[in-house]
Amino acid sequence: MNAQSETATPGRAATGASRVPVGALVTLLGNVRQSGMLVALLVAIAFFQLTTSGVMLKPLNVTNLFLQNGYILVMALGMLLVIVIGHIDLSVGSVAGFLGAIVAVLMVSAGLDPVIAIVLTLAAGGLIGVWQGFWVAYLGVPSFIVTLAGMLLFRGATLWMLGGQPVGPFPESFRAISSGFIPEVIGSIPDPFGPTDVALGPLVLPLGGDALQLTTLLLGVVLSGVLVLLAYRSRMQQLAYGFTVTPRPQFVVRNVLLVLGVMFIAYRLAGYKGLPVVALLAFLLIGGYMFLTLRTVIGRRIYAVGGNAKAAMLSGVNSKRMVFLTFANMGVLAALGGIIIAARFNSATPKAGYGFELDVIAATFVGGASAYGGIGTVAGTVIGALFFGLLNIGMGIMSIPIDYQFVIKALVLLVFVYVDVASKAREA
User: Fold this and answer.
1) What is the pLDDT of residues 161-180, one digit of tens each?
2) pTM for the whole thing?
């Protein structure tokens, strides 16, 4: 077996792209973009852990990583498909704010049950996605212009719908979407490590708490097992078809690191109140979109269109329909993001969603999606979303002013996109 290998991006086979060997260090982590992102994520964790004197990885802050940034994870999945197919959606923040206003008005003003209000809001999000997708796919208007207009349109619509005033509060069942936790059905045990910290030089690692929620730990074990099983099955299928795969020792090391990462997150969450509902929702969506992009015809066609639209069309792919569907999907996930935001703040406000498009788009690009389309993975997008969530939490703990936070995130986005552009120039 060749000591060097590649990680194929979905859609590469459809476009006929050749395989390019990469170095052993890159192979160890599986994908050059995701490898760089993982390194950046680990560096950011170490930096904030050092500058916050060990506070960053406390169970409460790890939990807040999901509670406060669940909307990024959710909407970034939709943005990934839009970017992979070669477009952009600048309206997601305004659309999420508008749909958060819709669900608020339906519950508070119209008195609808939260479940009915949520279903209607998701349907409204789909209609918005259909509207924008129609302009882009079938009328040929550039997505930049369509979604820029959508940003202004739905920001104004939010102000009109709310009359410039917040609408709330909401029923407790609705608020649980963003602030609730899964019930503890097994029980809890004292943390065997106790509430202790371990100092590794200047770096302080929290190692233990008061008690552990066993249900969350069990879910972490199940998730780890599923991820390893999927990786093993994928490796066996690639071998069966004669593809070059990661050497076995590196495959084992990569999956051991993956399991350690998942179980550490599960351990931190179990040390507070368990798994947040919004995190469970995000994980289910992540699994669904990984299946969509890796195992379905629609997923392969989206990557094919993003890689080479003309070649995909000559192969029988309806490029316009694929573009249309990705925008419709983005509308639904923007609705879900708006629901999460409204539930978290227990009200819909005229400024809800302001600037969120920066976090969502940046998380997707930083996670390895190419500005040229055709390249990007769900796993990389999740890493990018966690990276930006970590930035939000860490800079908040450090009391960095919001204006500086915008500057820092903008520079991070610029650097990662430059790396993508530079790598494309080298390939050419």
Assistant:
1) 888 888 878 899 899 988 88
2) 0.82
Distances from the Cα of 414 to the Cα of 52, 324, 420, angstroms: 26, 28, 10
Query: What's the rounded Cα separation, in Å, for the pair 111 and 115?
Result: 12
Q: At 281, give phi and psi (nearest 5°).
A: -60, -45
- Check: CB of residue 196 under 8 Å from CB of residue 39: no
**pLDDT bucket at 206, cuts 50 / 70 / 90:** low
Mean pLDDT across the stretch 236-242?
Answer: 85
Cβ atoms within 10 Å, residue 362: 25
Rounded to whole angstroms, the Cα distance separating 54 from 152 reads 42
Give the span between the Cα atoms of 235 and 246, in whole angstroms. Answer: 8
Report which of 38, 229, 23, 308 is spatially closest to residue 6, judged by C-alpha positions.
Answer: 23
ω into 169 cis (within 30 of 0):
yes
CA atoms within 13 A on the CB side of 418: 6
206: helix, strand or coil: strand
Q: Map residue 164 onto helix, strand or coil.
A: coil
Most confident of 210-214, 347-351, 414-418: 347-351
Other beta carbons within 10 angstroms of residue 1's beta carbon come to 10
Q: How far apart are CA 2 and CA 142, in angstroms?
A: 44
From CA 362, how far away is CA 410, in angstroms rounded?
8
Q: Is the dihedral of CA 219, 223, 229, 232 positive or negative?
A: negative
**Burial level of 287, CB count in 10 A (0-12/13-18/19+)?**
middle
Decide which of 90 and 61 is more confident: 90
Query: What confidence tier does 145 reach under pLDDT thresholds 50, 70, 90?
Result: very high
Give the closest residue to 84 by CA, choosing from 375, 424, 416.
375
Phi, psi of 206 (to 5 degrees): -70, 130
Largest CA distance in the chain: 66
Region of residue 353 (phi > 0: left; psi between -120 and 50: alpha; otherwise: beta): left
Question: Could you tell me which residues come within 8 angstroms of residue 325 by beta carbon, excluding any fewer than 6 positions away?
Answer: 133, 298
Grade residue 41 by pLDDT with cuts at 50, 70 and 90.
Answer: confident
Max avg pLDDT among 238-242, 272-276, 329-333, 365-369 = 329-333
